[in-house]
Amino acid sequence: xxxxxxxxxxxxxxxxxxxxxxxxxxxxxxxxxxxxxxxxxxxxxxxxxxxxxxxxxxxxxxxxxxxxxxxxxxxxxxxxxxxxxxxxxxxxxxxxxxxxxxxxxxxxxxxxxxxxxxxxxxxxxxxxxxxxxxxxxxxxxxxxxxxxxxxxxxxxxxxxxxxxxxxxxxxxxxxxxxxxxxxxxxxxxxxxxxxxx
Length: 197
Known about the structure:
The protein is of the alpha/beta class. It has helices at 41-50, 61-68, 74-79, 81-89, 114-123, 135-143; strands spanning 15-22, 26-28, 54-60, 92-95, 107-110, 128-132, 149-155, 163-164, 175-183, 186-193. Strands 5-4-3-6-1-7-10-9 form an eight-stranded mixed sheet, sandwiched between helices. Strand 9 (175-183) and strand 10 (186-193) form a beta hairpin. It is globular. The two termini are 19 Å apart.
């Protein structure tokens, strides 16, 4: 049973990043796609369940445009109505210096100090905040101390080339593994920043 927080203390929302990665450390393949990641019913069920605990989604521009081209469509709704419902309905925060508006809403575009924007959201009331994909952005948010938990699905695939997970993140960033388990064909790892464990 969880205890209430001590008087005078507030419990901030958890910010987590949900990522997929190949065994050799690539988030997307050389063509810039996630098509290489094997379909897995267990992982898909886990992904659906995350939607019950969040009320804000954070993405980079490229991930946003990819998602916006799929989830609002009839194909997205038919493929996974649960994920489509929360992807289409929840507020989205998008890091972008080139976009300022888009028909897929509700969306807030943030050109500068994305970490500060997310930190302010985190300090307010609400459910958890999810960073889906957007591994370069996630790496910068992790380095800024905004991300509380990394959820990483490692697929048994060697890509040989692509974009590394958390490419360009300033480091080193000490982490502690707080969970490891098989999830279908993948290995699912949970990390927290060492200072937050």
